[in-house]
């Protein structure tokens, strides 16, 4: 209908894969970190520590805030790769892929931002020392937290149903951490 109204004609043409390598490659990307926080948990945390102004690691389907950054181009996205943008003056909703947590924290602190980070409760993980001091206390930029024993209730699978996050197999607790990057002069790792 819209094409008739604007006198647009569409011609379909087959292109060999060898001449369409970029689009072919992009169409086969599987986002193994396609999971998010259940809406009910987001609303509860947003009512306590929000309103959040930007969702830093999401896609157009899972975004909890209308302003968001995505891994790949998405309709409505503010940009691709949130770690290249300034989060200063934002109240960030941060649910990064586990492998990005240290980089996300460093970027968050460098931007002197505020926000909430959602992570699995994994004391043996590589990101744990970024959050906890040797004496077991949270670092000074963690100003409040919410511990949820059953992390399977917190996370929801996205289109990739092969991920354990959001599945009944996920049995780790989850942490919601209220962060204030303005409280810390650049981080001193013990």
Could you write a compact summary of the structure shown?
The chain has 190 residues and is of the alpha/beta class. Helix content is 19%, strand content 22%.
How are the secondary structure elements laid out?
Blueprint (H helix, E strand, L loop, with lengths): L1 H4 L15 H7 L7 E3 L1 H11 L4 E5 L9 E3 L8 E2 L10 E4 L6 H11 L2 E7 L7 H4 L10 E7 L6 E3 L16 E7 L10
Parallel strand pairs: 2-3, 2-5, 3-4, 5-6
Antiparallel strand pairs: 1-8, 6-9, 7-9
Describe the fold and architecture.
The chain is α/β, with parallel strands linked by helices and 190 residues long. It has one domain: Rossmann fold, CATH 3.40.50. Helix content is 19%, strand content 22%. It has five helices and nine strands; from the N terminus they run ααβαββββαβαβββ. The chain has helices at residues 2-5, 21-27, 39-49, 101-111, 128-131; strands at 35-37, 54-58, 68-70, 79-80, 91-94, 114-120, 142-148, 155-157, 174-180. The strands form two sheets. Strands 4-3-2-5-6-9-7 form a seven-stranded mixed beta sheet, with helices on one face. A two-stranded antiparallel ribbon has the order 1-8. The longest helix is centred in the N-terminal third of the chain and has 11 residues, at 39-49. The mean pLDDT is 86.
